[in-house]
Amino acid sequence: MMDFPFPPALRLLRWAIHGTFAVLLVIAIAGVVRSGGTALAVGGVLLGVLYGGGIVIEGRLPHFGGRTHLTLGRIWLVAITLGWAVLALHAPKFVWLAFPLFFAYLHLLPLAVALPGVAVLTAAAIAAAGWHEGGVHAPQVIGPSLGAAVATLMALVYKALYSESEQRRLLIDDLVRTRGMLVKAESDAARLAERERLAREIHDTLAQGMSSIILLLRAARRDLRVRPDDAEQRIAEAERAAQENLQEARNFVRALAPPALQQSSLIAALRRVSDSAAAGTTTRVRFEVSGTPVRLPAEYDVALLRIAQGALGNVGRHSGADNARVTLTYLDDMVVLDIYDDGRGFDPAAQPAPETPAPETPSPEIPRPETVGAETAGTGFGLRAMRDRVTLLGGALTVESVPGEGTAVVATLPLPHQAGEGEEDR
Length: 426
Known about the structure:
single chain; alpha+beta; 11 helices; 5 strands; 64% helix; 9% strand; disordered N terminus
């Protein structure tokens, strides 16, 4: 009566038992009909209907489950047993229906109760057969006893198979849940990694560009009345920076390469970035290339360009330097990007000191970075973003600085084996 997800072999065994009951019942009904026992035949039909009704209820009401389902099954077993007892006392042909009932006892009752129940049912079958024969003989004892032994053995095998099947089902359920948890964990990790990547991109591009635009516009406003030509030049530079940042934002959506790298090489892009960084401040920025340029993977170009943008942004906003130098060096097994400035420097052990400016009197020509306002209060994210970029590519980032003696940021990336030769723009 209980509803479990049986494998095909166990389902076949169950239906074989039900089929055995049906065949024995049909044989018994046919025998009593030939003997003229119409009432007994009707009783046999009613017993078959009761038995079949239990099977239907088992399949149609799986939502009962647990103790309710088991209680209904045991009530059904009592009714079947009483019906069989009445028929077996009136016709010997019904005695053999005890064989499939053995399985029902062993299935629906605990083993400690089922075994005595099977013994009582076997004794009842032997007694009923002896009642009809006028005495108990060896065949009447051997038949039910052998049937009870076979049924018990098969029921024990059945329970062992069911236990193994249930353990396998639980294991599969656990594996499915674990796989779901792993998929969720991988999805969360990918989402966090993407957020971190976007944070680095925005910090090294849009945030740096906005800071440059603010510096240019404030310098233009200062020069608007005194030097209108210089102010016009600052406004044009701010407009160009705004257009570049707009293109960067569009590329985030389209997942394209940075605009500076789409139409030119890394060297040309670094040169333009260096020129743009010098345009909004009094800092003189010089760009140099050392060694023989080789073609780098796209992710190397993007990482080095972003590191240069971030470092030069820090120079413009925080260092107060008069001179800065960007050097791209190609060695036999690595490429090195070095950004050095002679500004105020900082203590690398203090975080987020790399992006926190110290007070200084602004130049009379162009407002110093600290005049930008709240934007100059760094968060320390810039250096961390640079370090994350080179770490993802197997490289290293070194920051050397002493208060009052400038800062050097060195990014080192190992050259991949497939690196080609000859960048066009050296």
